[in-house]
Amino acid sequence: MGLYDSIMVPCPKCGYRNEFQTKSGPCLLNTYQIEDAPDDAMLDVNRHAPTKCHVCDTMYSAPERPTAEDSLRSEVDRLRALVHQACDWLEARTDKQARIFHAAHIRAALKEGK
Ligand SMILES: [Zn+2]
């Protein structure tokens, strides 16, 4: 009966954590930080959004939390960038044909998603 949970969401401008009320979770007047709010409570975190920051008046909505797949994808991107850096290093430090060939081989494998 009119119960809800609160999720504290930092303002993107000043960082103050404003309260976002949600009715999709247990609704026991629990207060969560957005980083560890339960998934079900997050479902309608933006039911009243955009919300006005109490400190700086910025109107904002809670950001979508990254899924495990998003995290995995960004980790793969990071590792790919690292391998490209290694290839750059390899190519810049040798004029030996064999090493340039290896760098090209690695880059080709990356493009194919291996
Ligand atoms: Zn603010």
Describe the structure.
The protein has helices spanning 39-42, 68-92, 97-111; strands at residues 5-10, 17-22, 31-33, 51-52, 59-60. The longest helix has 25 residues, at 68-92. It is elongated and about 70 Å long. Strand 1 (5-10) and strand 2 form a beta hairpin. By secondary structure, the protein is an alpha+beta fold. It folds into two domains: 5-60, no CATH class; 68-111. Strands 2-1-3 form a three-stranded mixed β-sheet, with no helix packed on it. Strands 4-5 form a two-stranded antiparallel ribbon. The mean pLDDT is 86. Zinc ion binds next to loops.
Which structural traits does this protein have?
single chain; 114 residues; alpha+beta; three-stranded mixed beta sheet; two-stranded antiparallel ribbon; 17% strand; elongated; binds zinc ion
* Tally of domains: 2
Question: What form results from the Cα inertia axes?
Answer: elongated
Widest β-sheet, arrangement of strands: 2-1-3
Poorly predicted sequence stretches spanning 5 or more consecutive residues: none
Give the ordered list of helices and strands.
EEEHEEHH
Report the end-to-end length measured between terminal Cα atoms.
54 Å
Mean pLDDT: 86
Number of helical stretches of at least 4 residues: 3
Radius of gyration, whole Å: 23 Å
Q: Helix amount, in percent?
A: 25-40%
How much beta, percentage-wise? 15-25%
Helices and strands: which structural class? alpha+beta
Task: Please outline the major beta sheet.
Answer: 3 strands, mixed
List how many beta strands DSSP finds. Answer: 5
Bound molecules: zinc ion
